[in-house]
């Protein structure tokens, strides 16, 4: 993270737990015979558990039998460790030692009476042995991994048991910000721990935890060991699986994240059926649509920009083009890049998806047969992958200098031979070019929707700028994107 805060997955490695006890004011026990006793107002009846003042005990009683503790063992077994592993490492320098045995704690949710459970991928991904402890009987079961999905941090386990108390799942799409939620799990190994709060936000993405994010954010206290436990609504239905916290200390600060149960169910069903995830694939590089770019494209601002259509992909075959603005998928409006990406990934390969797009100011619809995402996916890296050029520049627009591409530039900067244009050599800090996100090393391939091969072409095409905004197409190691630079 750029600040002192960090994202922390809530899987706990076992260690000594420091407890600070609050001392009593006086060590003397109160006595019924003390004179003050007759003056105290005492009501020994049970708390109100019905009506508007009811607590959460009925919900907890319903759900807690379905929440298990998960213990993992990773690394080499103790018997495999070198007899020198506990000595001064300098005395055995150069001799590789097996990784010491590590034990971890997490949580899980019983999905079916015959022993299917869900937890986080990060709880079990490195484990060589997994044990599941039921909350009431304290009986341990050896668990097998049915399947894992690191991209959503979901894993499915199976234990050899029958008639288990399966949890009731809710519909996470009905959750609203401000709804009461409860988190239950085994923080620090303390099983059946319950905390309460609200849904602080929904649809959180771009958090940087996993590849596909659509988190429920909550202020219900979540701590190490809560990973894989349940986030429940006020009817005792599981609406999320707790996965991470946002913290500078590793402890709860009131910002926790849970995977929506609808997404969890989608992943679980595939893992149980096939042991793997088949994700939908469109084949485009998407970008955020700024008001300047939207204005230059004569498109609405409420959409997602297609920066590049990759050759030979489903989007290419269907006729989606660079510069299109996607405004809806199957009739549902889309304005957020991450949510559109998640929606496409959830589509079954071979299914048909209809995209509403705006191209050169004209709305149209495009039907696409969704493909299957290649296993390696598409990596996303930062801009400026061509390096920092050291060439004599020429001014193209205020705040930006660029140079023609010749044989030496292609070789020096490692630019692919099929890319033509001008290379950005300097961007003045605080300039409009800098504010637009242009960086040295990127190659401008289009100016005002016209392909260019040199500075002369770029200057000539600049005269076609509309509305005082110059629309550029820029290539770097990630692909291409559109950038709008105000000229006034």
Rg calc: 29 Å
Number of helices, counting only DSSP H or I runs of 4 residues or more: 9
Class based on secondary structure composition and strand pairing: mainly beta
Largest sheet: 7 strands, antiparallel
Mean pLDDT: 79
Tell me, what's the shape? Answer: elongated
Instruction: Give the amount of beta strand, in percent.
Output: 25-35%
Query: What's the number of structural domains?
Result: 3
CATH architecture grouping of the largest domain: Beta Barrel
Low-confidence stretches: 1-5, 25-30, 79-96, 376-393
Question: What is the number of beta strands?
Answer: 29
What CATH calls the topology of the largest domain is: Thrombin, subunit H
The multimeric state of the shown protein is single chain
State the helical fraction.
Answer: 10-25%
Please report the first level of CATH classification, the CATH class of the largest domain.
Answer: Mainly Beta
The rounded distance between the terminal residues' Cα atoms is 35 Å
What are the salient characteristics of this protein?
single chain, 488 residues, mainly beta, Thrombin, subunit H, Pdz3 Domain, 3 domains, seven-stranded antiparallel β-sheet, six-stranded antiparallel barrel, 9 helices, 29 strands, 34% strand, elongated
């Amino acid at each position: 993270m750029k600040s002192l805060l960090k994202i922390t997955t809530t899987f706990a490695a076992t260690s000594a737990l420091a407890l600070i006890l609050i001392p009593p004011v006086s060590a003397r026990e109160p006595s019924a015979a003390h004179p003050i006793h007759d003056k105290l107002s005492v009501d020994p009846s049970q708390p109100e558990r019905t009506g508007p003042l009811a607590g959460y005990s009925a919900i907890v009683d319903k759900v807690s039998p379905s929440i298990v503790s998960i213990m993992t063992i990773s690394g080499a077994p103790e018997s495999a460790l070198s007899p020198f592993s506990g000595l001064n490492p300098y005395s055995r320098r150069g001799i590789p030692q097996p990784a010491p045995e590590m034990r971890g704690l997490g949580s899980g949710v019983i999905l079916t009476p015959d022993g299917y459970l869900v937890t986080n991928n990060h709880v079990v991904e490195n484990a060589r042995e997994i044990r599941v402890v039921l909350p009431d009987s304290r009986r341990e079961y050896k668990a097998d991994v049915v399947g894992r999905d690191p991209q959503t941090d979901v894993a499915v386990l199976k234990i050899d048991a029958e008639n288990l108390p399966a949890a009731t799942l809710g519909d996470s799409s009905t959750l609203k910000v401000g709804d009461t939620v409860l988190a239950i799990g085994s923080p620090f190994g303390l099983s059946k721990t319950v905390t309460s709060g609200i849904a602080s936000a929904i649809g959180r993405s771009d958090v940087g935890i996993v590849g596909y994010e659509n988190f429920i954010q909550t202020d219900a206290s979540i701590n190490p060991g809560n990973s894989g436990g349940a986030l429940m609504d006020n009817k005792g239905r599981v609406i999320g699986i707790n996965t991470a916290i946002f913290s500078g200390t590793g402890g709860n600060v009131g910002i926790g994240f849970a995977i929506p149960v609808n997404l969890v169910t989608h992943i679980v069903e595939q893992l149980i059926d096939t042991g793997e995830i088949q994700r939908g694939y469109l084949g485009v590089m998407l970008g955020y649509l700024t008001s300047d770019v939207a204005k230059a494209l004569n498109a609405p601002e409420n959409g997602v920009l297609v920066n590049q259509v990759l050759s030979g992909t489903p989007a290419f075959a269907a006729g989606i083009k660079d510069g299109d603005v996607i405004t809806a998928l199957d009739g549902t409006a889309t304005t957020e890049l991450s949510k559109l990406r998640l929606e496409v990934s959830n589509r079954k390969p071979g299914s048909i998806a209809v995209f509403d797009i705006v191209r050169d100011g004209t709305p149209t619809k495009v039907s696409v047969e969704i493909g299957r995402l290649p296993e390696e996916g598409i990596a996303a890296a930062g801009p400026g992958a061509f390096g920092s050029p050291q060439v004599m520049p020429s001014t193209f627009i205020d705040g930006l200098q660029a140079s023609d591409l010749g044989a030496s530039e292609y070789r020096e900067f490692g630019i692919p031979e099929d890319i033509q244009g001008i290379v950005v050599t300097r961007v003045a800090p605080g300039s409009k070019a800098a504010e637009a996100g242009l960086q040295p090393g990127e190659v401008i391939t289009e100016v005002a929707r016209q392909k260019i091969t040199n500075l002369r072409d770029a200057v000539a095409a600049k005269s076609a700028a509309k509305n005082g905004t110059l629309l550029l197409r820029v290539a770097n190691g990630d692909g291409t994107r559109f950038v709008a630079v105000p000229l006034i």
